[in-house]
Predict the 3D structure of the following.
Amino acid sequence: MNLVIDIGNTQIKWALFNQSELIQNEVIDSIKEIPKVIEKLTFSEVIISSVASQEDTNFVKLLFDNPIVLNFKTPIPIENKYQSPQTLGNDRLANAVGGYLSFPHHNTLIIDAGTCLKFDFINQKNEYLGGAIAPGLKMRFKALHTFTANLPFVENLEIDSFVGRNTQESIVSGCANGMKNEIVQTIAEYQSQHENLKVIFTGGDITWLENMNLSQKNSIFADRWLTLRGLNEILNYNAQK
Protein backbone atom coordinates (compact mmCIF):
# COMPACT_ATOMS: atom_id res chain seq x y z
CA MET A 1 0.00 0.00 0.00
CA ASN A 2 1.15 3.52 -0.83
CA LEU A 3 0.43 6.58 1.30
CA VAL A 4 0.37 9.89 -0.57
CA ILE A 5 0.33 13.21 1.29
CA ASP A 6 -0.19 16.51 -0.53
CA ILE A 7 0.30 19.64 1.58
CA GLY A 8 -1.07 22.55 -0.45
CA ASN A 9 -1.58 26.26 0.14
CA THR A 10 -5.10 25.89 1.54
CA GLN A 11 -5.74 22.15 1.84
CA ILE A 12 -3.98 19.00 2.98
CA LYS A 13 -4.95 15.84 1.13
CA TRP A 14 -3.93 12.27 1.75
CA ALA A 15 -4.72 9.07 -0.10
CA LEU A 16 -4.08 5.36 0.17
CA PHE A 17 -3.34 3.46 -3.05
CA ASN A 18 -3.00 -0.21 -3.84
CA GLN A 19 -0.59 0.06 -6.78
CA SER A 20 -2.56 2.47 -9.02
CA GLU A 21 -5.98 1.96 -7.42
CA LEU A 22 -7.22 4.73 -5.15
CA ILE A 23 -8.54 3.01 -2.03
CA GLN A 24 -9.18 5.83 0.41
CA ASN A 25 -8.65 9.58 0.57
CA GLU A 26 -9.48 12.56 2.72
CA VAL A 27 -9.02 16.31 2.95
CA ILE A 28 -7.90 17.61 6.35
CA ASP A 29 -7.35 21.08 7.76
CA SER A 30 -4.01 20.85 9.56
CA ILE A 31 -0.76 18.89 9.45
CA LYS A 32 -1.31 18.28 13.17
CA GLU A 33 -4.04 15.83 12.17
CA ILE A 34 -1.65 13.65 10.15
CA PRO A 35 -0.30 11.61 13.13
CA LYS A 36 -3.86 10.55 14.01
CA VAL A 37 -4.54 9.65 10.37
CA ILE A 38 -1.52 7.37 9.95
CA GLU A 39 -2.25 5.54 13.21
CA LYS A 40 -5.26 3.97 11.49
CA LEU A 41 -3.59 3.08 8.19
CA THR A 42 -1.43 0.24 6.92
CA PHE A 43 1.09 1.18 4.23
CA SER A 44 4.63 0.37 3.11
CA GLU A 45 5.70 3.36 0.96
CA VAL A 46 5.17 7.10 1.45
CA ILE A 47 5.52 10.18 -0.71
CA ILE A 48 5.12 13.73 0.57
CA SER A 49 4.54 16.79 -1.59
CA SER A 50 4.58 20.11 0.21
CA VAL A 51 4.40 23.80 -0.61
CA ALA A 52 4.31 24.61 3.13
CA SER A 53 7.14 26.00 5.22
CA GLN A 54 10.27 23.91 5.75
CA GLU A 55 9.33 23.56 9.42
CA ASP A 56 5.91 22.09 8.60
CA THR A 57 7.35 19.87 5.90
CA ASN A 58 9.97 18.51 8.30
CA PHE A 59 7.28 17.83 10.91
CA VAL A 60 5.48 15.54 8.47
CA LYS A 61 8.69 14.00 7.10
CA LEU A 62 9.84 12.92 10.58
CA LEU A 63 6.63 10.93 11.09
CA PHE A 64 7.97 8.29 8.67
CA ASP A 65 11.13 6.22 8.27
CA ASN A 66 12.12 6.72 4.65
CA PRO A 67 9.55 8.82 2.84
CA ILE A 68 10.10 10.31 -0.59
CA VAL A 69 9.85 14.08 -0.24
CA LEU A 70 9.16 15.34 -3.73
CA ASN A 71 11.55 17.92 -5.17
CA PHE A 72 12.98 18.76 -8.58
CA LYS A 73 15.64 16.05 -8.21
CA THR A 74 13.12 13.23 -7.61
CA PRO A 75 13.06 10.81 -10.59
CA ILE A 76 9.78 11.00 -12.51
CA PRO A 77 8.37 8.98 -15.44
CA ILE A 78 8.28 11.95 -17.84
CA GLU A 79 10.95 14.33 -19.09
CA ASN A 80 10.88 17.66 -17.28
CA LYS A 81 11.94 20.38 -19.73
CA TYR A 82 10.99 23.30 -17.49
CA GLN A 83 13.83 25.81 -17.65
CA SER A 84 13.94 26.41 -13.89
CA PRO A 85 12.96 23.03 -12.39
CA GLN A 86 14.08 24.10 -8.92
CA THR A 87 11.32 26.74 -8.87
CA LEU A 88 8.57 24.47 -10.24
CA GLY A 89 5.79 23.82 -7.73
CA ASN A 90 5.40 20.21 -6.63
CA ASP A 91 1.68 20.34 -7.37
CA ARG A 92 2.36 21.35 -10.97
CA LEU A 93 4.90 18.55 -11.36
CA ALA A 94 2.51 16.00 -9.86
CA ASN A 95 -0.30 17.23 -12.13
CA ALA A 96 1.96 16.81 -15.14
CA VAL A 97 2.66 13.21 -14.18
CA GLY A 98 -1.05 12.69 -13.53
CA GLY A 99 -1.80 14.00 -17.01
CA TYR A 100 0.77 11.62 -18.48
CA LEU A 101 -0.81 8.76 -16.54
CA SER A 102 -4.26 9.64 -17.90
CA PHE A 103 -3.20 10.17 -21.53
CA PRO A 104 0.30 8.87 -22.32
CA HIS A 105 1.69 10.01 -25.67
CA HIS A 106 -0.99 12.69 -26.05
CA ASN A 107 -0.83 16.45 -26.03
CA THR A 108 -2.41 17.19 -22.67
CA LEU A 109 -3.33 20.44 -20.92
CA ILE A 110 -4.02 20.29 -17.18
CA ILE A 111 -6.05 23.15 -15.70
CA ASP A 112 -5.87 23.30 -11.91
CA ALA A 113 -8.23 25.82 -10.31
CA GLY A 114 -7.38 26.35 -6.67
CA THR A 115 -5.57 29.11 -4.79
CA CYS A 116 -3.97 29.83 -8.16
CA LEU A 117 -5.20 29.03 -11.64
CA LYS A 118 -2.52 26.86 -13.21
CA PHE A 119 -2.10 25.61 -16.76
CA ASP A 120 0.41 22.82 -17.39
CA PHE A 121 1.20 21.21 -20.73
CA ILE A 122 2.67 17.82 -21.67
CA ASN A 123 3.31 17.02 -25.31
CA GLN A 124 2.87 13.71 -27.10
CA LYS A 125 6.53 12.89 -26.44
CA ASN A 126 5.70 12.81 -22.70
CA GLU A 127 7.71 16.00 -22.19
CA TYR A 128 6.55 18.56 -19.63
CA LEU A 129 7.13 22.00 -21.13
CA GLY A 130 5.54 24.36 -18.59
CA GLY A 131 2.41 26.49 -18.72
CA ALA A 132 1.01 29.49 -16.86
CA ILE A 133 0.08 30.70 -13.38
CA ALA A 134 -2.66 33.23 -12.65
CA PRO A 135 -4.73 34.24 -9.60
CA GLY A 136 -7.47 31.81 -8.60
CA LEU A 137 -11.06 32.84 -7.97
CA LYS A 138 -10.79 33.59 -4.26
CA MET A 139 -7.53 35.45 -4.83
CA ARG A 140 -9.28 37.67 -7.38
CA PHE A 141 -12.11 38.42 -4.97
CA LYS A 142 -9.62 39.13 -2.17
CA ALA A 143 -7.45 41.37 -4.35
CA LEU A 144 -10.40 43.62 -5.25
CA HIS A 145 -11.27 43.99 -1.57
CA THR A 146 -7.68 44.41 -0.34
CA PHE A 147 -6.45 46.93 -2.87
CA THR A 148 -9.50 49.21 -2.94
CA ALA A 149 -11.11 51.35 -0.26
CA ASN A 150 -14.76 50.51 -0.81
CA LEU A 151 -15.21 47.19 -2.62
CA PRO A 152 -16.50 44.41 -0.35
CA PHE A 153 -15.12 40.89 -0.15
CA VAL A 154 -17.56 38.55 -1.88
CA GLU A 155 -17.31 34.99 -3.10
CA ASN A 156 -20.93 34.01 -3.71
CA LEU A 157 -20.62 32.05 -6.94
CA GLU A 158 -24.34 31.32 -6.87
CA ILE A 159 -24.82 34.78 -8.33
CA ASP A 160 -25.33 34.17 -12.04
CA SER A 161 -25.50 37.43 -13.90
CA PHE A 162 -23.29 38.56 -16.78
CA VAL A 163 -24.39 42.15 -16.31
CA GLY A 164 -23.83 42.94 -12.64
CA ARG A 165 -26.88 44.82 -11.34
CA ASN A 166 -25.19 45.79 -8.09
CA THR A 167 -21.64 45.88 -6.75
CA GLN A 168 -21.60 42.29 -5.50
CA GLU A 169 -22.94 40.96 -8.79
CA SER A 170 -20.46 43.12 -10.70
CA ILE A 171 -17.54 41.70 -8.73
CA VAL A 172 -18.69 38.10 -9.25
CA SER A 173 -19.32 38.74 -12.95
CA GLY A 174 -15.92 40.35 -13.41
CA CYS A 175 -13.96 37.68 -11.55
CA ALA A 176 -15.88 34.56 -12.59
CA ASN A 177 -16.54 35.50 -16.23
CA GLY A 178 -13.06 36.92 -16.61
CA MET A 179 -11.56 33.67 -15.38
CA LYS A 180 -13.90 31.62 -17.55
CA ASN A 181 -12.91 33.60 -20.65
CA GLU A 182 -9.26 33.19 -19.71
CA ILE A 183 -9.71 29.41 -19.55
CA VAL A 184 -11.73 29.21 -22.79
CA GLN A 185 -9.22 31.29 -24.75
CA THR A 186 -6.22 29.42 -23.33
CA ILE A 187 -7.74 26.07 -24.33
CA ALA A 188 -8.46 27.42 -27.82
CA GLU A 189 -4.89 28.64 -28.25
CA TYR A 190 -3.44 25.30 -27.16
CA GLN A 191 -5.83 23.50 -29.51
CA SER A 192 -4.69 25.68 -32.41
CA GLN A 193 -1.06 24.70 -31.77
CA HIS A 194 -1.36 21.06 -30.69
CA GLU A 195 -3.55 18.49 -32.43
CA ASN A 196 -5.84 16.08 -30.59
CA LEU A 197 -5.42 18.01 -27.35
CA LYS A 198 -6.75 16.44 -24.16
CA VAL A 199 -7.79 18.78 -21.33
CA ILE A 200 -8.06 17.78 -17.67
CA PHE A 201 -9.76 19.90 -15.00
CA THR A 202 -8.69 19.49 -11.38
CA GLY A 203 -8.28 21.52 -8.18
CA GLY A 204 -10.41 22.82 -5.34
CA ASP A 205 -12.73 24.76 -7.65
CA ILE A 206 -13.28 21.79 -9.97
CA THR A 207 -17.07 21.89 -9.46
CA TRP A 208 -17.14 25.46 -10.77
CA LEU A 209 -14.98 24.39 -13.73
CA GLU A 210 -17.27 21.46 -14.52
CA ASN A 211 -20.33 23.71 -14.50
CA MET A 212 -18.91 26.13 -17.07
CA ASN A 213 -20.65 26.10 -20.43
CA LEU A 214 -17.81 25.20 -22.80
CA SER A 215 -17.97 24.31 -26.48
CA GLN A 216 -14.91 22.04 -26.10
CA LYS A 217 -16.62 19.65 -23.64
CA ASN A 218 -15.96 16.53 -25.75
CA SER A 219 -12.20 16.80 -25.20
CA ILE A 220 -12.34 17.85 -21.53
CA PHE A 221 -12.13 15.48 -18.58
CA ALA A 222 -12.35 16.09 -14.84
CA ASP A 223 -10.30 14.40 -12.13
CA ARG A 224 -10.58 15.84 -8.63
CA TRP A 225 -7.70 13.65 -7.41
CA LEU A 226 -5.28 14.11 -10.32
CA THR A 227 -2.51 15.51 -8.11
CA LEU A 228 -2.73 12.51 -5.77
CA ARG A 229 -2.67 10.09 -8.71
CA GLY A 230 0.38 11.83 -10.10
CA LEU A 231 2.18 11.61 -6.78
CA ASN A 232 1.33 7.93 -6.49
CA GLU A 233 2.70 7.31 -9.99
CA ILE A 234 5.96 9.02 -8.97
CA LEU A 235 6.09 6.81 -5.88
CA ASN A 236 5.52 3.64 -7.93
CA TYR A 237 8.15 4.76 -10.44
CA ASN A 238 10.76 5.19 -7.72
CA ALA A 239 9.85 1.89 -6.07
CA GLN A 240 10.71 0.10 -9.32
CA LYS A 241 14.15 1.70 -9.63
